[in-house]
Amino acid sequence: MTRFHHPLLAVAAGLLLSPLLAGHATAAEGHSGPAFVDLVDYPTYYAQGAAFHDLRRRLRAGFDDVCMDTICEGEFTDYQALKMRCAVETASGMVTECRWAFAASELEVDPTNGRVGGQQPRWLCALPIPAGTTVPAFFAALAGPRAIFQQLPGASQSVFESVSECLGGTGDRSRAAE
């Protein structure tokens, strides 16, 4: 049996070993991973990567096609669709939430001092994901070139309608949604 001659060494050894022992106990109890993962990583790392990036490309193209005539009229110009992420419950394979980030800008030159200033609002829009939406159902419902106008089964709005409502509102401007 090892004896520590200095009490501080005993405390330090205990602090260093405790995380290792706790990790071993968790693995022994059968804890296999996180409760939720990014959609691209369900059921395994990057398993949905190609399908998700294709969907995001089609949604962004749909947004760009309709932006100037519909959603993007108003006080801001240069709306940009940014990153979109979806959460999947690993145990059930249900898509639980999707958020799509947007930003806009409106810049102008101050005629009295020549400085450029403006506003750069941002939004984090929730997409309409009904309870019980599986990963395959999510992709199937949003298939095709006009994905932004599709509605998930059981949803009350299309992606277009939910994004329009989000960008038209003032509640999410200039802050990230909780």
Describe the structure in your own words:
The protein has 178 residues and is an alpha+beta fold. The protein has one domain. It is 35% helix and 23% strand. The chain is built from four helices and five strands. Strands 1, 2, 3, 4 and 5 form a five-stranded antiparallel beta sheet that branches. A hairpin with a 6-residue loop joins β3 and β4. The longest helix is centred in the middle third of the chain and has 23 residues. The radius of gyration is 24 Å and the shape is elongated. The C terminus is likely disordered. Keywords: Signal.
- What is the string of helix and strand elements? HEHEEEEHH
Percentage of residues in strands = 15-25%
> Termini, distance in Å?
53 Å
Low-confidence stretches: 6-28, 171-178
Mean pLDDT: 83
Summarize the amount of helix as a percent range: 25-40%
Major sheet: size, sense and barrel closure?
5 strands, antiparallel
Name the structural class.
Answer: alpha+beta
Number of helices: 4
Can you count the beta strands? 5
Give the C-alpha Rg: 24 Å
Number of domains: 1
* Overall geometry: elongated
